[in-house]
Amino acid sequence: MDVTHILAGLNEAQREAVAAPPGNALVVAGAGSGKTRVLVHRIAWLIEAEGVSPYGLLAVTFTNKAAAEMRQRIEALLSVSASSLWVGTFHGIAHRLLRMHWQEAGLPQNFQILDADDQQRLVKRVMRALDIDEHRWPVRQAVWAINQHKDEGRRAAALPDSDDLFQVIHKRIYESYESLCNEGGLVDFAELLLRCLECLRGDEALLAHYRQRFGHILVDEFQDTNGIQYDWLKLLAGGTSHVMAVGDDDQSIYGWRGARIENVRAFIDEFEDVATIRLEQNYRSTGTILDAANALIGHNAGRLPKSLWTEGAVGDPIALYSADNDLDEARFVAERIAGAIEDGGSADEMAVLYRSNAQSRVLEEALMRADIPYRIYGGFRFFERAEIKNALSYLRLTHDRHADVAFERVVNTPPRGIGEKTLEAVRQLSRARAVSLWQASKEAIHEGQLRGRAANVVAEFIKLIDGMAEGGQDLSLHELTEWVIEASGLMDYHGREPGERGLARKENLQELVSAARQFSGELVFPLQDADQPAMSELAEFLDQSALDAGDRESGAGSAVQMMTLHSAKGLEFPTVFITGLEEGLFPHRQSRETENGLEEERRLCYVGITRAMRTLYLTHAEVRRLHGVENHNRPSRFIRELPPNLVSEIRVRRMVDRSSSLLNPVRGLFAPEPSAVNIGQRVAHQKFGEGVVLQSDGQGERTRVQVHFAAAGEKWLMLSAANLQTLD
Fold it and tell me: Which of 13, 179, 323, 723 is 20 to 30 A distant from 78 in Cα terms?
């Protein structure tokens, strides 16, 4: 049979991997080196050149999307149906095996799969039955602990006794949860892999059958496997199946969720006669970008040697922008994107990457002011995030007790024991008397329609809101925001979520304080009708937040992609901005505590750099107000680790108005001042004293500027009324 078409169009290293003789192999596939293509062509080669039956192949990916794409490409290459192939995720394949062998696995035939929400509700039920305080021991934390144990192959009965209260409580929850699942025939995602592994271990005949059947196993994204996935693979392969593991240790960035980079080295040591094949030719990025990526990742110790290269263009130097502050950084990004679009570029060819979700707010605002459409990839816009909406709902209730939407959102967040039955009683009274939920709650308590514990917990909520409003009367907007976040318990509640999720939610809440601080000052949109009462600063902030949350919903049109660096893995864009390259932010302050943590941060930066195809911008700010705190951070070590000859520093003189473009000067508004004022210029205000211009917004008579005053902090001022005097 002629199989030359399978190797057609492949480079030498790719052909070596595709046509390798049967055996164990580790394919170290660098970024943009065509690993998916190699996997697909390897499967085709095994079927047509080696005569392997499609039934004898098992291919494991990490997403259903990747599995579907692999099947489509195999069908196109072989012109046959790929429906008989076992191609899927670890969880998908484990589920298939358990459905076929439910009796051997000790499951009922109609066992039910629990999704993440189902699992959380069941754990909550268990905790209530055990009378465990959800405030002290959050449900999400318990779910995380259970899944962590399962991912490491640990059953509740196998957990050692401990004097640590955390371990004691979570062992009790795990034991009860496990018992409830067994009684009801319930299987969560982590259980799929653990139960499948235990089933194969416990049934020698079944294990022998699948070892004989799957003579060839291919695993994609091998560097992202966790402990139980590696154990499952090792058990299934035994000493007979041929395993090809494809991955890149330099792109291992998910250690925080259980991925073990050690599995790559273990594969070489524990499987027999492993051939190592390196895919180093890159088909994505310019030579300059690849040289920078190679130099950066070279600072990690113990990595498998690899150096990306390309036959393509050398490309432009990497652009480095040193911003005065985070607002200046965001403005620079928006200016460059706007300029590229004006020159005929497409918004969806550009991506803005950041280490922390909290960074997106300032960037979003800059893009909105420049009228640039954008999408948050794999997440929510800042003001759409659950923790932000919770905090804004508390703020709204301190301002207006009769805001029913806000009342419903936070009446039991954090959990305080106000159940659906109690809430429905309040709703019915509200509808019957045409009053707000707040008023209905007070009347229900006063008239005895709510009794006992239900009355007490609702009364405590009312007391909490009244107390927050009273305690915040004399506070500035940002102080009030900070006070409400703490007094409501939201910071503690969201912060207890496990892993990076909890940290991200805390940082977002702290960033809301920054948003309020930057909003502080004279009102931006004074009411035109003198007979109307002036809006309070809090009311205006709440309204603006609601507008920002609903502004320009993502549609099918072209839009800039905004995402965390973790979300960017596997994607590519002609132009990439990596923002916030500062010590303490990127690398993240927590990662610097261990060498492993720092190396994973460096791998994350490597992933970000290698997303860029033609143009790469790196930015950092001398001053950044993040999480409610103004920080003066040094530029990231990752910048210093790049060869200087590959980096070009940018310095731009920017003017404060954008009436017709992002760089236009303000004219005729600073009488008797000069006709143009620069961002960064020192000015004086009669009330606030001396300060520095940070940014501007609006045009004509509506132009406003943000100034950082040494004594009064940051203020937004209307230029036409501020009477600023320049000092430089």
Answer: 13
* 318-373+552-650 has the same fold as 4-99+194-279: yes
Kindly give the interhelix angle for 204-213 and 189-202, rounded to the nearest 10 degrees: 100
pTM for the model stands at: 0.72
Kindly report the backbone phi and psi dihedral angles of residue 83, in degrees, each rounded to the nearest multiple of 5, phi listed first.
-65, -25
DSSP state of 703: -
Phi–psi pair at 308, nearest 5 degrees? -70, 145
* Side-chain half-sphere exposure of 13, counting CA atoms within 13 A: 19
Q: Residue ranges of the alpha helices (H) in 160-217?
A: 165-184, 189-202, 204-213
Q: Is domain 387-511 annotated with CATH 1.10.599.10? A: no
Q: In angstroms, what CA-CA distances link 713 with 362, 545, 697, 716?
A: 18, 21, 18, 10
Domain ranges of the chain: 4-99+194-279, 112-184, 318-373+552-650, 387-511, 655-728
Q: CB–CB of 219/225 below 8 Å?
A: yes
The answer to whether 17 and 27 have CB atoms below 8 angstroms apart is: yes
Name the maximum alpha-carbon separation found in the chain. 92
714 CB-side CA count, 13 A? 24
Fold for domain 112-184? Arc Repressor Mutant, subunit A (1.10.10)
Q: Which CATH superfamily is domain 4-99+194-279 in?
A: P-loop containing nucleotide triphosphate hydrolases (3.40.50.300)
Q: What is the pLDDT of residue 698?
A: 58
Tell me the two tokens of residue 373.
């459409």
Residue 648 pairs with which residues in a beta bridge?
Answer: 319
**What single-letter DSSP state applies at residue 159?**
S
Q: Which letter, b or e, does each residue of 383-408 get, where b requires 16 or more Cβ atoms within 10 Å of its Cβ?
A: bebebbbbbbbbbbbbbbbebeebbe
Cα torsion angle, 129, 133, 138, 142, sign: negative
Regions of the chain short of the pLDDT cut 50: 521-534, 551-556, 653-672, 674-676
What distances in angstroms separate CA 552 from CA 130, 155, 239, 314, 373, one per listed residue? Answer: 47, 48, 57, 38, 7
Enzyme catalytic residues: 35-36, 220-221, 251, 611
Q: What is the 3-state secondary structure (H, E, C) of 234-275?
A: HHHHCCCCEEEEEECHHHCCCHHHCCCCHHHHHHHHHCCCCE
Cβ-contact 685, 722 below 8 angstroms:
yes
**CA-closest candidate to residue 628, choices 402, 477, 405, 464:** 477
Torsion sign (Cα): 360, 366, 368, 373: negative
Q: Please say whether the beta carbons of 91 and 193 come within 8 A.
A: yes
State residue 669's pLDDT score. Answer: 29
What is the predicted pLDDT for the residue at 1? 65
**Whose CA is closest to 492, among 128, 11, 40, 134?**
134
Q: 318-373+552-650, what's its fold?
A: Rossmann fold (3.40.50)
Amino acid 239: pLDDT: 85
H/E stretch holding 111: none
C-alpha distances in Å from residue 597, one per residue of 145, 559, 569: 21, 33, 18
